[in-house]
Design goal:
- A hairpin with a 2-residue loop joins strand 16 and strand 17 (433-436).
- The longest helix is centred in the last third of the chain and has 34 residues, at 341-374.
- It contains 14 helices and 17 strands.
- It has helices spanning 2-14, 21-28, 68-71, 80-92, 104-116, 130-147, 168-172, 207-225, 251-261, 283-286, 315-322, 341-374, 412-423, 444-467, and strands spanning 47-51, 54-57, 62-65, 121-127, 155-159, 190-193, 230-235, 238-239, 245-246, 265-269, 294-297, 309-314, 382-388, 391-396, 425-426, 428-430, 433-436.
- Helix 4 (80-92) packs antiparallel against helix 12 (341-374), helix 5 (104-116) packs parallel to helix 12 (341-374) and helix 13 packs across helix 14 (444-467).
- Strands 4-12-11-10-7-5-6 form a seven-stranded mixed sheet, with helices on both faces. Strands 1-2-3-15 form a four-stranded mixed sheet.
- It is α/β, with parallel strands linked by helices and 473 residues long.
- The chain binds pyridoxal-5'-phosphate.
- The site of pyridoxal-5'-phosphate has 17 residues, from helix 6.
């Protein structure tokens, strides 16, 4: 103990307040998703400033913010309206306890969110982000079934390729490769189904047959396990972090029907797709024609200016609880920052911006964004370019026929990112994929600039792979 303290004192003595952030990070910061070999000892690209769709790195280099932070800076960086509303709200009321009190912005925001939500989704429970939103939805499902006298109806259906968060239960739903290799989870509560990824469907299978396969698998699983044991299905309308997987037409509607028929709550995880990414405040109803029992949201609700998330819950479920035989049963769940006034105030202003033009702009530029990205399929390293709205993914493969996801080089995405960084674009690398989800205010000219850099970054990566003898396409 004493030795550890001495070591720490020596370290601290070496660190001056004016020290380079990179050095300080290497000594004191733990960043998300670290590898054991570099945990607490690495520094990532330092970002100093942001403006519109651009960010500036530690060397002063200007980059297009390709992932819009983490799919969240929807209305762009440095919006004075948002900064001002946060300042004004903090000066008026910086915080109030949601345990015994409430604030006006949270109630007004709940009303406006409900007005955009499909079906009878009428009430909002606020959280601190997406993981806590998913966690809240699942704990609500457990509570709901306990109150309704069905304590065995708690299993959760999730899918390969899913990403739902980093808290224990939400992370237990994740289905991306590598996420769970070294991590525990509540596996006894979760049943995993196939990813609805058309690109990776069995060789020779038509899209229609693939859709039937997915739907049959869902129905068969419910029959095998028993609907009386399954509480919820959680699904992203478009699997975002799994590589922008757009499921086949009609699939989500059919899953929704099976859930309804079996009294399984459908939780649509719109942490990425809500607040404009697909040109609408919510995509479940407006894009996919479904009316979930709950929608989870976060990220774009404040365009990333403040950590906020939430769950929108169906009036029917709340009414059932109110009419139950257990009016005193308590939903023992709440976060210190539930209904945070600053978060809700900035979300209201952000929603104004979306409604006043950003949604319409997104709908207008999205087809151009998709068409331009699609031209990258000309490059032999690219297996598929796919997407919807202002989210897209370039998936690299070693061989187009076998669709081998580059077993020889798992970090091809990182290689492309490194070249693009040099050229002025931040990419979100995901193993063999590059995910693009720029701020929604991006113009056609900026889309040209972005795709041009990406093309050059991939070309340079192909040259490197050939030179190293890793790939000969
Ligand atoms: C669909 C989805 N759900 C949940 C989360 C978790 O959100 P957070 O990181 O805000 O906890 C994410 C994060 O990327 C996400 O993409």
């Amino acid at each position: 103990m004493a030795a550890a303290r001495d070591l720490k004192a020596t370290e601290m003595a070496g660190a001056e307040p004016g020290d380079d952030a990179v050095e300080l990070a290497k000594r004191h910061l733990i960043q998300p998703w670290p590898f054991a070999g570099s945990v607490g000892a690495e520094a990532r690209a330092l970002i100093g400033e942001g403006d519109g769709i651009y960010i500036t790195d530690g060397t002063g280099k200007r980059l297009i913010d390709g992932p819009a932070g983490m799919w969240c800076v929807n209305v762009g960086h440095r919006r004075e309206e948002l900064a001002k509303v946060m300042y004004d709200q903090a000066m008026a009321l910086s915080y109030n306890t949601p345990w015994y009190t409430m604030n006006a912005p949270s109630a007004e925001l709940a009303m406006r969110i409900a007005s955009h939500a499909p079906g009878d989704l009428s009430h909002v429970f606020y959280t601190t982000g997406g993981s806590s939103a998913v966690e809240t939805a699942l704990r609500f499902m457990q509570f709901y079934n306990n109150v309704r006298g069905r304590p065995e109806k708690k299993l959760i259906l999730s899918r390969g390729g899913a990403y739902h968060g980093s808290t224990y239960l939400s992370a237990s739903l994740n289905g991306r490769p590598r996420d769970r290799d070294w991590m525990d989870g509540a596996d006894e509560l979760v049943i995993k189904l196939s990813s609805p990824d058309p690109f990776r469907r069995p060789h020779g299978m038509s899209l229609a047959a693939f859709t039937d396969f997915l739907v049959d698998q869902f129905r068969d699983t419910v029959a095998r396990v028993g609907a009386e044991r399954i509480g919820a299905f959680v699904g992203e309308p478009v699997q975002a972090s799994g590589g922008v997987v757009v499921s086949p037409d009609g699939y989500l509607k059919r899953i929704r029907e099976i859930c309804r028929d079996n009294d399984i709550l459908y939780v649509s995880d719109e942490v990425v797709t809500a607040f404009g990414r697909l040109g609408h405040v919510f995509a479940s109803g407006d894009v996919f024609g479904i009316d979930p029992d709950m929608i989870t949201f976060a990220k774009g609700v404040t365009s990333g200016y403040f950590p906020l998330g939430g769950v929108i819950i169906s009036e029917r479920l709340l009414e059932e609880l109110r009419r139950s035989n257990h009016p005193d049963a308590m939903f023992g769940h709440g976060l210190t920052y539930t209904s945070h006034p600053v978060g809700c105030a900035v979300a209201l202003k952000n929603l104004d911006l979306l409604e006043e033009g950003v949604l319409a702009h997104t709908q207008q530029v999205a087809p151009y964004f998709q068409a331009q990205l699609k031209t990258l399929e000309e490059l032999p390293l690219v297996g598929e370019v796919r997407g919807l709205g202002l989210m897209g993914c370039v998936e690299c493969v070693a061989d187009r026929e076998s669709k081998d996801p580059l077993q020889l080089d798992k970090d091809v995405g990182k290689r492309i990112d490194a070249h693009c960084h040099e050229l002025g674009l931040l990419v979100r690398p995901l193993i063999n994929m590059c995910v693009m989800s720029p701020p929604l205010i991006i113009t056609r000219e900026q889309i040209d600039e972005m795709v041009g850099i990406l093309r050059e970054g991939i070309s340079r990566t192909m040259d490197d792979l050939r030179r190293e003898g890793v790939w000969q396409g």
